Amino acid sequence: MRVAPSILAADPLHMARDIQRMLDAGADWLHVDIMDAHFVPNLSFGPALTAALHRQFPSLPLDVHLMMDNPEGYIDVFCDAGASVLTIHAEIPGDVAALLERIRARGVKAGLSVKPGTPAEAIRRLLPHADMVLVMTVEPGFGGQRFNAGMLGKLDALREMGYTGLLEADGGISLSNVALLRSHGLDVAVMGTAMLGSADPVADMTAIHAL
Fold first, then answer.
1. Which pairs from 104-111 meet CB under 8 Å and 24+ separation?
2. What is the radius of gyration, based on Cα positions, of the chain?
3. Which pairs count as long-range contacts for 34-39, CB under 8 Å and 24+ apart, including other chains?
4. Is the pLDDT of residue 67 over 70?
5. What is the pTM for the complete model shown?
6. Residue 139 has pLDDT above 90, yes or no
7. Do residues 52 and 29 make contact, with C-beta atoms less than 8 angstroms apart?
């Protein structure tokens, strides 16, 4: 079980300090949400910050989630910036399978994300092109939302389809529900508020790694 703390929950004026705390606690990946204020109603980070994170923490894999209408124009930019995993959304227009293969061709893991309202069946044909599926357990766009337990069935459905890649979830994940998610096949837990705000992230990550 991997833990990917989300920088969306970090103090923007002390981000390096907060990330180092997560790294010292045993973080496996660092989750970087890129929001364009079109696909989702919020605006966040960009490639310059991603590149700076890669320079400052070169050993920490960057799990970059593009919540964008037009990721095709940014795939190379974020690969060059140091993304280890680059995730795009199934709901965008265009040839999603081709974009996933473009990411793979750069030697970066290709992730496919689905909003809560998108059923697992809708991405069946895309699964062979994805190294990871990110199941959003809240409506994407803002941190600190409540976990939607109805998404557990989506994890089950993906495994029942025969998907053997990584399953990741993001949205309201905490110590109170991560074991349940693990029992439904989760491999990577994105944790923002619950981990960045933890009084003892070492103990929390140790407990999750043991699942």
1. 104/129, 104/131, 106/75, 106/76, 106/79, 107/79, 108/79, 108/83, 108/84, 109/84, 109/85, 109/166, 110/85, 110/86, 111/63, 111/65, 111/85, 111/86, 111/87, 111/168
2. 16
3. 34/64, 34/65, 34/66, 34/67, 34/68, 34/74, 34/78, 35/67, 35/68, 35/140, 35/141, 36/67, 36/68, 36/69, 36/70, 38/68, 38/69, 39/67, 39/68, 39/69, 39/89, 39/92
4. yes
5. 0.95
6. no
7. no
> Residue 70 has what pLDDT?
93
d(CA 139, CA 65): 14
For 105, the token pair is 């061709």
Residue-wise DSSP of 134-180: EEESS-TT-SSPPP-GGGHHHHHHHHHTT--SEEEEESS--TTTHHH
The residue behind tokens 């793979």 is 104
Q: Rounded to an integer, what is the distance from CA 69 to the centroid of its chain?
A: 17
* 77-131: pLDDT as tens digits: 999 999 999 999 999 999 999 999 999 999 999 999 999 999 999 999 999 999 9
How many residues comprise the chain? 211
Report the C-alpha gap between 77 and 81 in whole angstroms: 6
Cα(128)–Cα(51) distance, integer angstroms: 29
Active site positions, annotated: 33, 170
Q: How many CB atoms lie within 10 A of CB 4?
A: 26
3-class state of residue 122 by DSSP: helix
Tell me how far apart the alpha carbons of residues 85 and 155 are, in angstroms, rounded to a whole number. 19
